[in-house]
Design goal:
- The chain has 360 residues and is α+β, with helices and mostly antiparallel strands.
- The protein has helices spanning 41-53, 57-68, 115-134, 189-206, 252-267, 286-297, 301-306, 310-316, 319-327, 330-333, 338-359; strands at 10-14, 21-22, 79-84, 94-100, 103-112, 143-148, 153-158, 164-168, 174-178, 183-187, 214-215, 225-230, 233-238, 244-245, 269-271, 278-280.
- The protein is 39% helix and 22% strand.
- Strand 9 (174-178) and strand 10 form a beta hairpin.
- It starts with 9 loop residues before the first strand and ends with a helix.
- The mean pLDDT is 93.
Length: 360
């Protein structure tokens, strides 16, 4: 830590649907939502501050320099803005704003405060390191710094400015949680389809066909995919990779078919308004999901080597074979959403067959 860095003003905020709330001493003793160790907001923000002014400083200055187009030193920083963004089952993500004369850089920080989060964050760091190096076209956030502290483990990553979660809405349809732009923004059918097309394509780009390694787990309900809407232009990004490895079925043809089925199933799974009861998206979303998968997979030489005509192979798979790909996968059977999805599998397979007949 440099002497100039220790004098940087630090502002702490807590994001909410109604706007950012300033953090004050009255919040210091309040435990973070869902933290089993009862880590408080005071400990959280103190740990983030120490990280920013210590092991994370070089990465923060690098991000600021990239944004500024020049070297930014600790002495140039006029303010750090630490904002607690949300609270999840594993992490308590924050954004970190680095302000300097003429501009600002923002990066993301995944903060783990308990043993299950610490282990997950180490896996995520390894997955993002690999995927950002091997599959840069997937657009996953680059890891910038990883620090394992006494109480807080922190992974600093690129921040996707202007991107927001999207979820199935109670009244039907898909809405974007754009609290910066005025709240919930409903999407039209074509726009929603484009989001799922892009999300499916990202996962397909990251599949390792030979080993069967894929990004897993992920969930729409967790806000793993985000979208930026700019008029008619849509861009979807995946903000996390909590793990990267094969299912119990491994790679090759069987692994590829398993990936296709599980991706089409879980792409249709969400929770109403992101936090309510489980919901299975209607079949009209399936065409975009399948098209996104095929857009990536059919362009890959390793896929063609494994299954020379993927489209034809998909049409030949029987419902019993599709079902066996799930029932013989120990990971899927142990998934808390497995029973919900298996109840909907017959309908899904029928709709999948109809989709294949129209698209491939």
């Amino acid at each position: 830590m440099t002497a100039s860095a220790t004098h940087v003003p630090v502002t702490c905020l807590v994001a909410s649907p109604h706007g950012d709330l300033p953090y004050g001493p009255d919040m210091a003793g309040i435990p973070l939502e869902g933290c089993p160790l009862q880590t408080t907001y005071g400990e959280y923000f103190a740990g983030l501050r120490d990280f920013c002014l210590g092991p994370g400083l070089t990465a923060l200055l690098g991000a600021a320099g990239t944004a500024a187009g020049r070297t930014v030193t600790a002495g140039d920083v006029t303010e750090l803005v630490l904002k607690a963004q949300k609270h999840g089952a594993l992490y308590h993500p924050a954004s970190i704003g680095v302000r300097f004369p003429g501009g600002q850089a923002t990066v993301g920080a995944n903060v783990a405060t308990a043993p299950h989060g610490w282990a997950a964050l180490a896996r995520e760091h390894a997955a993002l390191e690999r995927l950002s190096r091997e599959v840069p076209e997937a657009g996953l956030p680059r890891p910038l710094c990883f620090d394992e502290g006494d109480r807080l483990d922190i992974l600093l990553v690129e921040w996707f400015s202007g991107f927001h979660e999207f979820h199935a809405a109670t009244g039907g349809g898909i809405v974007v949680w754009d609290f910066e732009g005025g709240g919930l923004a409903p999407l039209g059918p074509d726009t929603a389809g484009e989001i799922y097309w892009q999300a499916a394509r990202i996962l397909a780009l990251c599949l390792d066909v030979a080993s069967g390694a894929r990004i897993w787990p992920w969930r729409h309900a967790a806000g793993d995919f985000v979208v930026r809407c700019d008029g008619d232009e849509m861009e979807t990004r995946l903000i996390t990779a909590r793990g990267y490895g094969p299912s119990t079925l491994g790679g090759g043809e069987r692994g590829l078919l398993h990936f296709f089925l599980t991706t089409t199933l879980f792409m249709r799974l969400d929770r109403l308004d992101g936090v309510g009861e489980r919901v299975f998206l209607p079949g009209r979303r399936l065409a975009a999901i399948v098209a996104g998968l095929l857009a990536a997979l059919t362009q890959r030489a390793d896929v063609r080597h494994c299954i020379p005509d993927l489209a034809a192979a998909l049409r030949r798979v029987t419902p019993d074979v599709w079902r066996s790909l799930l029932t013989t996968d120990a990971d899927f059977c142990a998934d808390p959403d497995a029973a919900f999805l298996m109840d909907r599998l017959p309908t899904h397979l029928s709709e999948l067959s109809d989709t294949f007949s129209r698209l491939v």
